[in-house]
Amino acid sequence: MVVDDHRLLAEALASALKLRGHRVLAAAAPAAGAAELVITRAPEVCLLGTATPAEPGMFDPVVRIKRERPQVAVLVLGPVPSPRGIAAAFAAGASGYVRHDERIEGVERAIMKARAGEAAVAPQLLQGAFSELLNPAAQPDDEGQRLLQMLTPREIEVLVRVADGEDTRLIAAGMGIAPSTARTHVQRVLMKLGVGSRLEAAALAARTGLLDRAGPVPGPSAPLNGTGPQA
């Protein structure tokens, strides 16, 4: 049985398998109804297509099939998977993982292995998965988090106020500090961020998501030595 969200792909694969002497009970879409269909028809092997192997719940149909029809071997058809995708497929009870761009001969070999109770996955996929698991690639640099770690809480507040368009006088009034101190904080922020102007600092903070992480600035503090604005 071939089940895939793309009916044309399912029917093409089913036709190719029939030409090679396999009996195909059904070629169906969408994959969301795979479990019910497989449980009802009980094929020896089910080829189950997926476009997102690492998505949570993607292999719930496999879990149900193996629970209610444990004799059915499920082969997952999908894109080049991450180690998490392969692990999720096998954890759900799949007998193998076959890439969507595999030649029909490769699909047929996987079917034969699955029918024989063997794990059907290309050696290069396993090699790549194990290599990535043992030597995980560095995660993309989270620039917003890195910038937050460079700044003190007060400097973060200054940056948020700069991004809100406050000038030195308003920053000083809002934080209850002298204008000269506010100016010093602004200069330190610019220096740490490696930018030359307040506009550049605001743009960098917005682009990296730093402003969302920083949260709203506190309300106005009491001015020092009566230097704040009067109502």
Automatic annotation (TrEMBL):
SUPFAM superfamilies: C-terminal effector domain of the bipartite response regulators (SSF46894), CheY-like (SSF52172). Residues 212-231 are annotated as: Disordered. InterPro entries: CheY-like_superfamily, Sig_transdc_resp-reg_C-effctor, Sig_transdc_resp-reg_receiver, Tscrpt_reg_LuxR_C. GO terms for molecular function: DNA binding. Pfam families: GerE, Response_reg. Residues 1-115 form the Response regulatory domain. It comes from the Bacteria. Residues 144-209 form the HTH luxR-type domain. One of its GO terms (biological process) is regulation of DNA-templated transcription. Keywords: DNA-binding, Transcription, Transcription regulation. PANTHER family: DNA-BINDING TRANSCRIPTIONAL ACTIVATOR DEVR_DOSR. This is Helix-turn-helix transcriptional regulator. It comes from Streptomyces mangrovisoli. The lineage of its organism: Bacteria, Bacillati, Actinomycetota, Actinomycetes, Kitasatosporales.
